[in-house]
Queue: 4 jobs
Job 1
Amino acid sequence: MAAPSTGLSRMAFAALFATTLAAAIGNMGLVSIMPAIGRELGISDFLIASIFSLSALMWAIFSPFWAARSDVHGRKPYILIGLGGFICSMLGCGLVVAAGSVGLLAPTLVFVAFLLVRSTYGIFGSASSAAQAYVADHSAGEHRVRAIAGLGGALSLGTILGPALAPFLILPPAGQSAPMFIFAIGGVLIAALVAAVLPRDRARLHVDAPTQQQGMSVTAIWRHTRVRPYLVYGLLMSSAQAANTYTLGFLVIDRLGLPPVQAQGAIGIAMVAGAVAGLVAQWGLIGMGGLMPRALLRWGAALAFAGNIALVALPSFTALVSAFAIINLGYGLARPGFSAGASLAAGEEAQGAVAGAVSSIAGASIVVSPVLAVALYEIVPDAPFIVLGGLMMGLLLYSLFSPQLAETRRRQPSIVSCER
């Protein structure tokens, strides 16, 4: 993946892209197979939806910590720490599921052990948020929007590959835990790539202005009047996306009326359709249209609203897949919209804080919203999608009429250098 509009070499950007890709493949592959694993092991849908909550909370808490340290010590060491957290959590989760599958752990113990092991990803994997800050350090203005969208495309590509690959990776003798072991091996290979080809950066040490010797904290960035509106939008949008994603598996199983394992292929198809739509948004529409953040926020909310309403109105599986694709087309526009908007609204001394805040949002959005959405789904299946449609309409009106989201001017900061 080339990044011609940044100050990074092709291989350096490829390493950052692969870092984001690894996390997306592993995480979305895990999300796609957990509903079937949970029902096979006798764990309730509600607990399966909440199984990632502790990890997400740890991600939200530790992202600012790692971001602040990357401002001082450079981004590369923390990208490697993040990959290490991914590798360890995948190995641990695979061992827990394997133990549950052969009866060594009761369902309740499987849930508790998985919850605790998965939390290591939130604690250490959140250090990989330095990847966005690394890209921001080497790009400016409209180029930064496209570069962040390109990096965000790794999320969509990983969302395609994860659910598509996971069902085919359920292989003997490891069975349902096999995908987790294979994802961990992939993480090891990508960590080796990052270590070998990503230049060692000392971005903050290259800034000479007295007011920029230290980066802004993540707490302070939330008080930044130009940045905060993008972060608030991002938190709400990301929470909606998490709710849509984590209810999808249960929705597919119930609409098709199939046993959980047999429905796994259909779940993968729906997730892949959504991820392809997100990829089209981030690699196609943004690049061709040259859209800036406020336009991305508007179109993103409008499309996500339309897709959620379609999920309620159209009950067939084909309609479900199409609606989920429309929803993710919207999210695919909105995510780089608020990420790049916040980055452009902040000064260069605040890029680590912005990356930490955006990464923290990714974790915070998974703590509560999936659990609430699945709880609503168990009561009234259409309820979560009606609520999400209303939220998207609110964000659309906010992006249309809020003076706080005035278009960010295109800053043209200097590009910092890197050294091996």
Job 2
Amino acid sequence: MSTSVAPLEMVDTGRYPLTDPGSPAWREVVARTRAELADVGCSVLADFVRPDLREVLRAECAELAPHAYTKVEKVNAYNIALDTPLPEDHPGRTVMERGNAFVARDRIPASSIIATLYTSPVFQRFVADCFGLPELHELADPLSGLTLNVIAPGRAHPWHFDTNEFTVSMLTQEPTAGGAFDYCPNIRSAEAENLDDVRAVLAGDTRPVKRLGLRPGDLQLFKGRFALHRVSTVEGMIARHSAIFAYSERPGVIGSAERTRQLFGRVLPEHLAGRAVRGDELLD
């Protein structure tokens, strides 16, 4: 199932004026979003997708969900190999169970709502403006640039950091219960891992944790490279689906072979060619 709706026709342009870049209304939305990102590293643009398309959005992604690579694995917050040499008290030694699954970009039709938005120049310009950047680049990674995150009942996506600096996501299907998005804004920076703070959250400290209420069609802008975050265990009979639109400030960003195997169960030549680009020296 796919649509042929143009990207601007998918968006509630009455609230989010993508049809009028640089207008006063555009600048007002951008200013509000930038303020929230500066304050807590996250902003939610409620009801971004038009109400009459939300069922199409849900159905398209539900049709893709069976293509998700599903394998419950033991991971750490940095998604590096568990046998990586680390000091005894390093938070990377905390092992968690990852039960979510990902549909890779090469399984997502270019005509789908999420792919049309992801590749839309005007959408990218809007997102870049919200992040205060001159431009954003789609990830060069052929698997992880655009994905569908599928969390089945009884499963969770444990605490982790993102590879890319900026993540844009959209809930496409709500679970019956559970599946809350929790995050710790600015718990690390490009200059400092802040291991003590990360270790405390992994040990159960909830003081730095914020929780978001999300609905299908909401657009979430998030600085996921610097915020430890998770999706709590999904409850009931309905899976949680969310589209992940991954962008970077610089071209050429490709995931590591280790992390790619974890997420998709396969790697491509691009992941083995040593072409990965990073903007910092963080663990991952």
Job 3
Amino acid sequence: MTTEAQQPTLTVDELAARAGVTVRTVRFYSTRGLLPPPVIGPRRVGRYGQEHLSRLALIEELQHQGMTLAAIERYLERLPADLSAHDLAIHRALVASWAPEGAEEMSRAELERRAGRALTDGDLQRLAAFEVIARSGEQESFRVDRGLLGLGLQLLDVPIAHETILAARAVLLEHSRAAAAALSRLLRDEVGEPRPDSGTDPERAAAVRSLSAHMQPLVVQALVTAFQRSLQQEVREWLKET
């Protein structure tokens, strides 16, 4: 059953503001079939929901990757039609993991426009702790990590303590670095040890980069899938004990 919180409530102007695009862009994507049609409410006003917002974020991320509109259309056509907003957010996170690191300057007003609400000083401190934002030279200006912004804004509404979220982040970083180190050793073993008298071996370095480029997408997908299934299993076991 769809809850009230899941009902489409955003006007096209509000959707565009939350997504950081123009209304014209939203309408253009809709005419190309990249966005599902809005729910028509009272007075024939179209209302948009979280699914539209998540799909817009995915489209914008694909554009950041350099994909053409035609390529994005083909990409979205291959996705299951019943993907939820949550599924789309996870998919976008996977796509964003291959985007070059980048930050953009953003005012507090723009941050609040993207969040769809006013941000307290506590919210800003929380975003800074997540390394989503960093204060720029001006008092009300921030350098914003584009890839983390959506996640950071969602975490503001997670009903757990700030310290718990930071502790969870530390756990993920620790184990991801350990996994990366172990996989790096496997890659080095695959291409062989350098010759003692070779110094910097260009051929070996090229082989490592080539193998890494081929393996990274598979490794990330495997890690995300394994983690998702492990977490679901842990939750099931926890619920059995309560």
Job 4
Amino acid sequence: MSQRPSDGLAVVILAAGQGTRMKSSLPKVLHPIAGRSLIQHVLDVAGSLGAEHVLAVVRHERERVAQAIAEHAPDTIIVDQDEVPGTGRAVEQALQALPDDFDGSVVVLSGDAPLIDHDTLQMLIDGHLAEGRKMTLLSALFDDPTGLGRILRSDDQRMLGIVEEKDATDEERRITEVNGGIYVFHRRTLQDTLATIDTNNAQGEKYLTDAAARILASGGAVDAVATTDTWLIAGVNDRAQLADVGRELNRRIVRKHQQAGVTIQDPSTTWIEAGVSIGADTLILPGTYLHGATSIASNAIVGPDTTLVDTEVREGAHVRRSEVHLAVIGEGASVGPFSYIRPGTELGESSKIGAFVEAKNAKIGDASKVPHLSYVGDVTVGTDSNIGAGTIVANYDGVKKHETVVGDGVRIGSKNVLVAPVTVHDGSYTAAGTVVRKDVPAGSLSMGVLPQRHIEGWVADKRPGSSSAKAAERAGETQES
């Protein structure tokens, strides 16, 4: 059963905490995993539910957190928590920001628990509505539940309430079913209940968890739905937990791509951010990092030891042992090994950037090649052209960057320097070692070679006794005989 439109749905995200254990100037909910901040992951799942209202409760570093939320999910309503501490007070203030006539369901999420997913939340909402409950929460079973609130049940397994660990008895601390901090409430019931809750507890806070016992006491239906996937409720409180949750999220992202037909040879050394798309039958080799809005088409090969950032890799392309930023790798094109491809670079179909090449804002046409040991910046290369080894496109005059154009069917010799702005027209050749300062006409050969001179006896005179001098002496003796 899906959420009925007449029921209405609101989502409240708790993001007011300071997160002191992170020991960071960055607010806890803004720490990133898989290319997005913790709260961005939670905002994404909240948005997937089709809620009428999404609200985020903020306090610590209010402006930074609110700005980050607004940039990612601009329709989110920002609610400021006051001086009264506790999750109960935070939710109470969020409810006050809802329209008075809203009487649907309210989902409560934590801004530091990014692994909760759409399917689990939808299951929780559907069960909540189908059973007519006033409160439904997600729980989990832990071998070691230290630090977490416990679910209290009767002998016949009816839920009796929730107790925070600091307020629990020794017997209650031995309970292994814990509160996951993810809830669905009926709005009016929750609002009326929170008005009756005080801060008389070990922490001096207004606990949201106290609502369970109050609703039960008033005759409302409450239950906890246990999940066997304990990662869904995992919160982040320090850097170690941040790494653990990030690693688990990456494992899930990798597995999702594998199940969609992508071969990932070594998941343990492959990191894929949440915004990456990969086509079927692509091979991802060990040591690969895929960031941002990177898109890889089918039948490509990426890796090993490769980083792609906001890059499009088209069908059948191969990128190996290279770093690529904000570039387009054309169909059947090849990059690497040990290439550095900078923003604005576009490779055409079946083109090549080879070993130890740096490219920046370079448009390389179909079937053209920059095979090795070159720098090409601010250049447009036509089709079926070849840039010789050791070539430099000198695009900067110390003040401004200038453009270079290399036409179709051009052959640039080894160790050339193309001094921009310059055009090498279609079908031209340049000789090895040429410094091209002027436009090269179509079909011509450009040379910048000085006459070759020989200074006889220079080695014996300037490097006497060296291995070179001895080799030359032996050669002379051989020639004389």
